Amino acid sequence: KVDVATMCHGLEARAPFLDHRLIEWAMRLRFQEKLRGLERKRILRRLARRRLPPEVVDAPKRGFALPIADWFRGPLLPLFRETVLAPDARCAELLDPSAVASLLAAHGQREANLEHELWAILWLELWWRWIS
């Protein structure tokens, strides 16, 4: 998710914890140094406390969501219509095209958030075209 989201905005994310020297150092640590009770990321938090305020270090974990629901009302709408709702759509063998169009309309009019269903249908169609 991070790579896709950052690259969409011309940014490139790095994974500093994959540096082989850091991995080798961590592998040499005793288990007790890495974990104490249920405290997660103990060493990282201890290091972070040197430079960051407690409200940042102790903040609860938060997800990183993509605006897929909005995309189906905007940038993904033409792709969905041109593939899933096309006369030659492969997924029409499994799904009623009028029902799929109704899902898209309900989502577009904000009657329901159907991003997961629309995402699955879109990728089913794209996958089916790719393997054919």
Tell me about this structure.
The protein folds into two domains: about 1-55, no CATH class; about 70-130, no CATH class. The protein contains nine helices and no strands. It has helices at about 1-10, 20-30, 30-35, 40-50, 55, 70, 75-85, 95-110, 115-130. The mean pLDDT is about 90. The chain starts with a helix and ends with a helix. Helix 8 (about 95-110) packs across helix 9 (about 115-130). By secondary structure, the protein is mostly helical.
Layout of helices and strands:
Layout: H1 2-8, H2 20-28, H3 31-34, H4 42-48, H5 54-57, H6 68-71, H7 77-83, H8 97-108, H9 115-131
Shape: elongated
Number of domains: 2
Our estimate of the beta-strand percent is: under 5%
Number of strands: 0
Task: Report a brief summary of the structure.
This protein has helices at residues 2-8, 20-28, 31-34, 42-48, 54-57, 68-71, 77-83, 97-108, 115-131. It has 132 residues and is mostly helical.
Keywords:
9 helices, 2 domains, mainly alpha, 132 residues
